[in-house]
Sequence to fold (494 residues):
Amino acid sequence: MFNKILIANRGEIAIRVMRACRELGVKSVAVYSEADKNALFTKYSDEAHTIGKPTPAQSYLNMNNILDVAEKSGAEAIHPGYGFLAENPKLGKECHKHGIKLIGPNPSVIEAMGDKITARKLMKKAGVPVVPGTEKGITDVEEATEIAESIGYPVMIKASAGGGGIGMRIVTEEDELLRAIESTKSVAESAFGDATIYIEKYVNEPRHIEFQILADEHGNTIHTAERECSIQRRNQKLIEEAPSPIMTPELREKMGSIAVRAASSIGYTNAGTVEFLYSNGEFYFLEMNTRVQVEHPISESITGLDLVKEQLKIAAENKLDYSQDEIKVNGHAIECRINAEDPLNDFAPNPGKITGYRSPGGIGVRVDSGVYMNYTIPSYYDSMISKLIVWGRDRNEAISRMQRALSEYIILGVKTTIPFHKAMMANPHFYQGKLHTHFVDNYKNEIYDNMQKVVKEDRIMEERLKSTFLPSKRVAAVSAAVSSYMTAHANSKK
Ligand code: MV4
Fold:
């Protein structure tokens, strides 16, 4: 195992990685921007170095500064987390030049999966089902018309350099095709500097089901079951759960072995995710994410694995400790992303100072956060405050537990997505598990009405809280306030 690694990321994921380091006896090096001097991950690390000004381009994306710190501090490896440099093949190449191990797959694999046409080609060759469509870039409109005709409308025009939802257009009839092609090309050119596009059959209201992969450097690849990530808004996931409500042992065996084949066919190593679109019993490869994902904790909850620890062990050239047969799914896990956003105002970002904070606890509850009382959320980065993860013996218990945990969660000073999650956990369609990627859009009025009710109730609680303690006073005041909040809440329910 390594003696010391550098974590090239911030916030909750930096702490998540450092926690695995601490358990493994590995020293952690934090790199932080000037805006993150007082961040929890900076304090949590064994050693912290500044890497520049607040903007990502001047700090967390600045490879030279990060590599300088790695060399100076004697870190043997770099963990990139998610976002920032995590799926930039240059990082692995630079690490290699400096004799530093990157905790992730090889740059060539990241590159191949980053190009969606290449990914489709490779997957098709490996016998992985892909959405019907083209395996080469399209430039000619006449050719596009023929292809769209043969696969049948509606079709989707996608940028090859895209992913995560940028550079996509649905086309329902031939008349719209030309305009859609031109606009997708220009979006792709300006967003990625690459105007290459391709065409796929449009899958309506699919589920997004993804398989977690672990692959060591000795040719062993396993999956640790699936996650259902259909509850999203504008390509931002909001709620994830594992297992998927529709999964059966037979389907898991089938999709899982295909996901393993997808990864091993390209020589994938370390942790990764194979994404599928699922609709009416059919499933198709969508993308492969070559990083640890935000929602990895729900897979940890149902398998008992520490996926970040596995990543470090794999990078240290250990063999996987588990065979596929030894991976068992136990119970049900749900993750709610708690963001500093106003769900009643189109999820507008709402960074600022957290003037009151108490996170939930008790059986089956996990909070991965990067914040604390009186911490100011900087406006330079994404707005995630924390991830609230619960485990239950079954889905119903997980939902009740999430409701209970959300009701305990106190965050004052910034608006958060907690009301959205409370509304979702009480939503009968969610309860039935009939999920798809358009769920939030389709039920937006129902969700909005329920959120307003939730916020009204919460506001009454908040007033009682405020009269009990002044935010700037000692933390002890918080627990007093919390007890009174709990009592008030219990009374209001009677
Ligand atoms: C699709 C699709 C339907 N049909 N492709 C969105 C993100 C990008 N990675 C691919 N996406 C989609 N591709 C075909 N042929 C629907 C989506 C999609 C989606 C996929 C996964 C999770 C959320 C989504 C939300 C809207 C659309």
In short: Residues 131, 156, 163-165, 200-203, 206, 208, 232, 235, 277, 286-287, 437 surround MV4 (CB under 6 Å). The longest strand covers residues 221-233. The chain has three domains: 4-103, 132-201, 207-463. The chain has a mean pLDDT of 93.
